[in-house]
Amino acid sequence: MADKVDKLLEDYYSGVIDSQIFIRKRELKDNHDVDENVGGGRAQNKQTREVDNMIIRYESDIVLKQLYWQVDQIKIIENTWVKERLPLIRMHYDRRKRATWLVISRSMNLSESQCRKEVMKFKEVLTDKTSLWKSQTPNMTNVL
After folding, report:
1. How far apart are CA 108 and CA 120, in angstroms?
2. How is residue 137 annotated by DSSP?
3. Is 144 part of any domain?
């Protein structure tokens, strides 16, 4: 379970989830190979509403909803967390910076053990407050 939480937080703070959302939207935008003319005759009075169809695809896509849901859950926990400790979480989980515990502790003016405890508390709150790690899938009806 801790590996899933670590992976999710690393993806979130490194910008991977945002790029996954962007890529998924691109895939849905470019994927329109649906032939609605099943009968083979000429289709008359057929209206194409590209923007409406794209919005419907975005709202009905399960993968996109799950990505947005994960981002929303992390943001909710961040908003309830101590604002002075959020940079510590960001520095630890951002893969682009690769900060060590020593660098993090010096920049936050805390001991290394205190920094580790703060990260563990954040992970515990995230796993307790959300149902991300349970075997059932979250209700995705009103995510977007």
Report:
1. 16
2. P
3. no
- In this predicted model, what pLDDT tens digit does every residue of 82-117 receive, in sequence order? 888 899 999 999 988 888 999 999 999 999 999 999
- pLDDT tens digits for 90-99? 999 998 888 8
Residue 43: inside a domain, yes or no?
no
Structural domain containing residue 115:
2-30+53-129
Buried b (16+ CB within 10 A) or exposed e, 78-116: eeebeeebeebbbbbbbeeeebeeeebbeebebeeeebb
Tokens in use for 18? 């945002």
Both tokens of 92, joined, read: 């630890």
In a domain? residue 25? yes
Instruction: Please tell me the pTM assigned to this model.
Output: 0.74
Task: Look at residues 101, 90, 84 and name the one whose alpha carbon lies nearest to residue 9.
Answer: 90
Count up the domains in the chain and report the number. Answer: 1
Work out the number of other CB atoms within 10 angstroms of the CB of residue 6.
14
CA angle 3, 5, 6 (to 5 degrees): 65
